[in-house]
Specification:
Blueprint lengths: L4 H20 L4 H15 L7 H5 L1 H15 L7 H27 L2 H27 L3 H6 L3 H19 L6 H15 L5 H19 L2 H24 L2 H8 L5 H19 L14 H4 L2 E7 L5 E7 L8 H29 L3 H20 L6 H10 L12
Antiparallel strand pairs: 1-2
C-alpha cells in the first residue's frame, strides 16, 4: 500500500460527491469540507507545506479580512452575530487548510484521479438535472420547492467547479463541448447568474489566453470597482435611471436588485463608510429592515409595486456588503484580494493561468450579483475547489 492509499477514498469521495449531492442537499459543501479538512489534518504532516507558497499574498489577504471581521465585533450593531461569523470563517479557513495540505501532497497520478472524480461528479449532476427536466421534475415536486430554491446552489457550484476540470480534458474540442454542454443544461434552471458566470468566465479565460496583459488590467479594474461602486451607484443609479432600465428589462428580480443596490449605496455613502455596521449586520432590521415600496413595470407592461425590506438578508453585491458591514478597511481588504491574485496567477503556467482567470471571473460574478459575502456553503465550496489549481508539469503542454 502506498502512503496515500488510505486517504484516496476520502478525496475521491469528496470531489465526486460535491455536485451530485447538491442536487439532493443544496448546501452540502460545509459537511464535505469538514470531512475533507479533518481528513487532511489527520493524514498529512503540514509542516513542510506552505499555503503562502501556493497562493502568495492572496492567502494573507484572506487572513487579514477574517481578522477584520473579528475586530468589527467591537462596534457591530449585533456583536454576538458578528463574533459567530468570525468563528465560522476561522473554522472554514482551518478546514480548507487541512484539505489544501492533502491535495498538495498527492502524487501527480493521484491528483489527476482527484480531478477526474470532480469531472465525473459534474457529469452525474448534469445527468440528474436532465432527468429531472424530462421526467416532469419529480424531485422538485416531492420537495415542494421552486426550481430556484431546489437547484440554484447546484448550478452555481457547477459554474465554479468546471474550471479545474478543464485541465484533464485532452483537446480543445473536448473542452468546448464540455463548456457548451454545461451552459445548455444550466440554462434549464431558473438561475441566470450560473450561465452568465460561465459565459463571463469563458470570455475572460480566452482573453487572457490571447492577450495575457489583460489579466492584470482586469483584476485591477475589479479592485478599483470594489472601492468605487457605492459612489458610482449613488450618482448613476437614480429612481429615474432604474425606471429607464425597467422599460427594457421587466424581470422582478433584476429591478428589485437595482433598488436594493441603490438603497445600500446611499446608506454607505451617507452613514457607514468609515467602520461599517459590523460583519453580517446586513440582515439586522436596524440596518435594512425598513419596509420599502418600489415601482416597476412587469412583463405585461402593467405597473406594479415591489414590497420588500430595504435589504433582504444581504445586498447581493460583494463591494456593497463589504462597505456596509466592514467600512473602508473591509473594502480595501476586499479590493486587495484581486490585486493579490495577480502573483498567484503569474506564478502558474500560461495554460493554468487561463483556467484560474475563468474561475475568478465566474465566482466574482456570483459574488457581485447573487450571493452574500459570508454564505457558508459557497465559501466551503471555494475552499474545496481552490487547492485544485496546483501547478502540474502537464499544465505546460
Amino acid at each position: 500500500m502506498t502512503p496515500f492509499s488510505a486517504p484516496s477514498l476520502l478525496y475521491n469521495f469528496v470531489l465526486v460527491s460535491l455536485c451530485p449531492f447538491c442536487f439532493f442537499i443544496p448546501r452540502v459543501a460545509p459537511f464535505l469540507l469538514i470531512l475533507a479538512g479533518v481528513g487532511g489534518w489527520f493524514f498529512v504532516n503540514p509542516y513542510k507545506l506552505s499555503p503562502q507558497k501556493f497562493m502568495g499574498p492572496w492567502f494573507y489577504g484572506v487572513l487579514f479580512l477574517i481578522l477584520w471581521v473579528g475586530c468589527s465585533c467591537f462596534w457591530s450593531v449585533d456583536p454576538v452575530n458578528s463574533f459567530k461569523l468570525f468563528l465560522r470563517l476561522c473554522s472554514l479557513c482551518g478546514l480548507s487548510l487541512g484539505w489544501y495540505f492533502l491535495i498538495q501532497k498527492l502524487p501527480p497520478d493521484a491528483f489527476r484521479s482527484a480531478l477526474r472524480s470532480l469531472l465525473w461528479g459534474i457529469l452525474l449532476a448534469l445527468t440528474l438535472l436532465l432527468m429531472e427536466k424530462f421526467l416532469g421534475e419529480p424531485w422538485r415536486l416531492w420537495c415542494g420547492k421552486s426550481c430556484a430554491q431546489a437547484f440554484v446552489p447546484l448550478v452555481l457550484t457547477i459554474s465554479a467547479s468546471l474550471w479545474p476540470c478543464l485541465r484533464i480534458l485532452s483537446s480543445r474540442l473536448q473542452k468546448m463541448v464540455f463548456i457548451v454542454g454545461i451552459f445548455g443544461i444550466l440554462s434549464l434552471v431558473d438561475c441566470d447568474t450560473a450561465w452568465i458566470a460561465v459565459i463571463l468566465g469563458l470570455i475572460a479565460s480566452l482573453a487572457s489566453l490571447v492577450l495575457p496583459c489583460i489579466t492584470k488590467a482586469g483584476l485591477r479594474l475589479l479592485a478599483i470597482l470594489t472601492l468605487a461602486l457605492p459612489w458610482l451607484f449613488s450618482v448613476f443609479l437614480t429612481n429615474q435611471q432604474i425606471q429607464n432600465i425597467n422599460h427594457h428589462i421587466h424581470s422582478y428580480s433584476y429591478i428589485h436588485r437595482l433598488y436594493i443596490w441603490q438603497f445600500t449605496s446611499q446608506k454607505v455613502t451617507q452613514q457607514s463608510w468609515i467602520l461599517g455596521c459590523g460583519a453580517d449586520s446586513s440582515r439586522e432590521d436596524i440596518i435594512g429592515g425598513s419596509h420599502q415600496e418600489w415601482p416597476m413595470v412587469d412583463r405585461h407592461h402593467q405597473r406594479v409595486t415591489i414590497h420588500s425590506k430595504a435589504i433582504p438578508t444581504h445586498p447581493h453585491n460583494f463591494s456593497l456588503q463589504l462597505w456596509l458591514e466592514l467600512g473602508l478597511m473591509g473594502a480595501l481588504l476586499g479590493a486587495s484580494l484581486y490585486n493579490f491574485a495577480i502573483p498567484w496567477i503569474c506564478r502558474s503556467s500560461h495554460l493554468l493561468a487561463t483556467y484560474q482567470i475563468g474561475f475568478i471571473m465566474a465566482i466574482s460574478t456570483v459574488f457581485w450579483v447573487n450571493l452574500g459575502c459570508w454564505q457558508t456553503w459557497w465559501l466551503a465550496t471555494l475552499g474545496i475547489l481552490i487547492p485544485l489549481f496546483r501547478q502540474e508539469t502537464s499544465d505546460h503542454s
